[in-house]
Design brief:
Layout: E1 2-5, E2 24-27, H1 28-32, E3 39-43, E4 59-63, E5 73-78, E6 81-89, E7 94-97, E8 106-108, E9 114-124, H2 127-133
Antiparallel strand pairs: 1-2, 3-4, 4-9, 5-6, 5-9, 6-7, 7-8
């Protein structure tokens, strides 16, 4: 799918003069998906990642081919349950960290079964859902 793309960035600060011409068309799949055969979309539920601008109903583009690194947002399976969290790790320990202070960090221990299914590369959200989270 191709969409119109204005090459000029839109500042979030002070307004700047608008340009009246279109630069090009872009294909969202080419712009957002680096590894099509290993990328999938999943819908998020719950509010544990609201501080990362992931409201309930957000769709996450997840790339299974990427190796997760410290600080990535990941989709993981923890003891048979899917979850989306920041991954924090060092040479000894790994944690799944929510972006909402009302939820605790999850320290991964040897008695837990945890697998990372993929790294979240993009967040697609309806701004109305995002607005509800900011209230």
């Amino acid at each position: 799918m191709e969409l119109l793309y204005y090459e000029t960035a839109v500042p979030a600060g002070f307004p700047s003069p608008a340009l009246d011409y279109l630069e090009e068309r872009i294909e969202l799949d080419r712009e957002l998906i680096r590894h099509p055969l290993s990328t999938f979309i999943v819908e998020c539920t719950g509010d544990s990642m609201m501080g990362a601008f992931i409201p309930p109903r957000a769709r996450l583009l997840v790339d299974r081919s990427l190796t997760p690194v410290n600080g990535n947002i990941v989709v993981a399976v923890l003891n048979g349950e899917f979850t989306v969290k920041f991954m924090r790790k060092n040479e000894h320990t790994c944690w799944l960290v929510p972006a909402n202070s009302k939820y605790p960090e999850i320290k991964i221990t040897s008695d837990m079964d945890m697998q990372v299914w993929g790294v979240v590369t993009h967040i697609i959200t309806d701004t109305q859902d995002l607005r509800k989270c900011m209230r």
